[in-house]
Design a protein that fits this description.
It is a single chain. The protein is an alpha+beta fold and 262 residues long. The chain folds into three domains: 54 residues; 104 residues, no CATH class; 91 residues, Serine Threonine Protein Phosphatase 5, Tetratricopeptide repeat, CATH 1.25.40.10. The strands form two sheets. Strands 4-3-2-1-5 form a five-stranded antiparallel beta sheet. A hairpin with a 3-residue loop joins strand 2 and strand 3. The radius of gyration is 26 Å and the shape is elongated.
């Protein structure tokens, strides 16, 4: 006695056979179109990858396979997210994530979840590549994929700050973002004194992330002496602009330094 599953299977087979007999030419054409579409997508992606690698830009995001870059041990898949920090005449410098992933989707998930915006996501150690070797690294699989942000996004995840808050006068937007972004780069390069100067410029011009970054450095004495009064001032100013990171940091700051908050 046939089960319901067997009957359903036979019915599906019969219907598929009838469909093929009456529409095999149409199905063949559809199959060709699908194959052509995927072939073109692959070709277009490779063209885009070649374009990005030939002219890399600051903030480009790369997924690296460190297994192809570490030569002193047996190959093992190790995906890591990296981001272009600076572009020189013949080389690029990247900041690299503190985490490695066994599967590529782990690196993609990190990008999609805005992980690149976390303060501790990137490790202090930077890596550099010659521009002339980027294509070869891609062919070897050491560079798995490179993405160029659309506005501030890659795959829906935020990978860099906007040029400036919406309420900032248009003529000042570029300079605000410039000071903060340069401060971030100096900080990642561990040039704390320069980073502090740049964040101070951004903070004094009203940029909330510049205020938050400066407050964080003042609280822990990076690039100079500890300045708790200054840290409170700038945390508070950034929090009043609805900067969520500053609000959380201010709350923790006041728990540790109750006499400083009023």
């Amino acid at each position: 006695m046939q089960t319901i599953f067997q009957k359903s299977l036979f019915y599906f087979h019969d219907q598929t056979d009838k469909l093929y007999k009456h529409h095999h030419r149409t199905l063949f054409v559809i199959a060709l179109i699908v194959i052509a579409y995927f072939a073109y997508s692959i070709f277009e992606n490779k063209q885009q990858q070649a374009e990005f690698l030939s002219a890399p830009k600051v903030d480009d995001v790369l997924i690296l396979d460190m297994g192809h870059l570490i030569k002193d041990r047996k190959y093992q898949t190790q995906y890591r997210v990296a981001q272009v920090l600076s572009v020189e005449e013949d080389s690029i410098t990247l900041k690299q994530g503190s985490y490695t992933y066994r599967k590529k989707r782990g690196a993609e998930r990190a990008i999609k979840l805005d992980s690149l915006m976390l303060n501790n996501y990137f490790r202090p150690a930077l890596i550099s590549f010659k521009k002339s070797e980027l294509a070869a690294l891609y062919d070897q699989g050491a560079i798995d994929e490179i993405f160029r942000p659309t506005d501030i996004y890659v795959m829906g995840g935020i990978v860099r700050h906007r040029a400036a808050p919406e309420h900032v006068p248009h003529k000042l937007k570029v300079s605000f973002n410039q000071f903060n972004q340069e401060g971030v780069r100096a900080y990642l390069a561990r040039d704390f004194e320069e980073a502090k100067k740049l964040f101070t410029q951004a903070a004094e011009q009203g940029y909330d992330f510049g205020q938050y970054n400066l407050a964080d450095m003042l609280e822990y004495g990076e690039g100079g002496d500890v300045d708790l009064a200054g840290a409170y001032k700038w945390y508070k100013s950034a929090a009043e602009q609805n900067n969520l990171k500053a609000k959380a940091a201010l709350e923790l700051f006041c728990e540790k330094h109750k006499t400083m908050c009023h």
